[in-house]
Design goal:
Helix content: 10-25%
Structural class: alpha/beta
Distance between the termini: 18 Å
Strand order of the largest sheet: 5-4-3-6-1-7-10-9
Largest sheet: 8 strands, mixed
Number of helices: 4
Order of helices and strands: EEHEHEEHEHEEEE
CATH superfamily: Dihydrofolate Reductase, subunit A
Radius of gyration: 15 Å
CATH topology: Dihydrofolate Reductase, subunit A
Length: 160
């Protein structure tokens, strides 16, 4: 049975990126992302892949693009979210961005793994609204601000 899991770090205003990069530096979130996605198929848009710059070790990388001529070493290419999910096959599928892919995947997601970053930032990519009537918070692990790092929380949601 396949579960579709959206994995995202977002600011209080749902911003997830600015100019192809994360608007913060939060090493604990990167470790969390690795732990949540390791061994799984990850689906992402081309811009998200290009911001990462390479396939991540220990995970299948499936990139959704409209550009039929695009390719990258170590990456499987799909031309729609539906094709990417079919390509992923059995097991959990991690949707890891960006904004357009999250919006397309929100209706088919079973779970959300959200890092809530206690900042409001100027972004150009945003996560869709998490509608309270559709999602139930299953767990929350909060961490205080430390040095130059903002406060944040790892929050898991399941579809109602």
């Amino acid at each position: 049975m396949m579960a579709v899991i959206l994995v995202v770090a977002m600011a209080e205003n749902r911003a997830i990126g600015k100019n192809g990069d994360l608007p913060w530096r939060l090493p604990a979130d990167l470790k969390h992302f690795k732990a949540v996605t390791m061994g799984k198929a990850m689906i992402m848009g081309r811009k998200t892949f290009q911001s990462i710059g390479r396939p991540l070790p220990g995970r299948r990388t499936i990139v959704v693009t409209r550009n039929k001529d695009w390719s990258a070493d170590g990456v499987e290419v799909a031309y729609s979210l539906q094709d990417a999910m079919a390509l992923a096959g059995e097991g959990d599928v991690m949707i890891v961005g960006g904004g357009e892919i999250y919006t397309q995947a929100m209706d088919v997601a079973d779970r959300l793994e959200v890092t809530e970053v206690a900042l409001t930032v100027d972004g150009d990519a945003f996560f869709p609204e998490i509608v309270a009537s559709e999602w139930r918070e299953e767990s929350r692990e909060a961490f205080p601000a430390e040095d130059d790092k903002p406060a944040y929380a790892f929050v898991s949601y399941v579809r109602v």
